[in-house]
Specification:
alpha+beta; Immunoglobulin-like; four-stranded antiparallel beta sheet; disordered N terminus
């Protein structure tokens, strides 16, 4: 009986820890500004050039260029199945501990809602200086590099959904 009570207490503590674990990321996920104190909707969509926060990262999309057929050099590179869209972005760690920036957690969307994932292999070739998006960023540090999305020819991306991890809520950035 004592083992069951101990197990129940442990399970309750783990559930409580799990419920509280996401609260700090959720609070930091809102776009720049303190709309939450005013009771306004914090799910604001940023534009290119505006900073937006999700969890421990602050993202600033600098530019978007689609219609690229190949990234890298003639010897080492990747060819698009359709067309590459190159999204140049600055990512700053605003947290208090190191955080891994995972390119595969970033999503792009077309006007019809079709979701596209980042092409991490093409991203390696697009970031010639080795500044790839699968690296750990220490608090206060930032990296600038290119996310690559391989989308069909003729499709136009309308927004990005950026995440500090695969489990975060994400923030939107309009590309038009």
């Amino acid at each position: 009986m004592r083992k069951i009570a101990t197990f129940a207490l442990l399970a309750t503590a783990l559930v409580a820890l799990g419920c509280g674990a996401g609260s700090t990321d959720d609070a930091a996920s809102s776009a720049s500004g303190d709309d939450s104190a005013k009771g306004e909707d914090t799910a604001k969509t940023a534009k290119i050039g505006e900073s937006v926060r999700d969890g421990k990262f602050e993202f600033t999309v600098k530019s978007s260029k689609c219609g690229v057929k190949k990234v890298g050099s003639d010897l080492l590179g990747a060819k698009a199945q359709g067309q590459f869209c190159l999204i140049t972005m600055n990512v700053k760690n605003i947290g208090k501990e190191a955080q891994l920036l995972d390119g595969s957690s970033q999503k792009a969307y077309a006007a019809d809602g079709t979701e596209y994932s980042s092409d991490t292999e093409a991203g390696l070739y697009a970031n010639e200086d080795g500044n790839t998006f699968f690296e750990e960023i220490n608090p206060g540090n930032q990296v600038t590099g290119v996310f690559v999305f391989d989308i069909p020819k003729g499709v136009k991306l309308t927004k990005l959904e950026l995440h500090d991890s695969a489990f975060s809520g994400g923030v939107d950035v309009a590309l038009r």
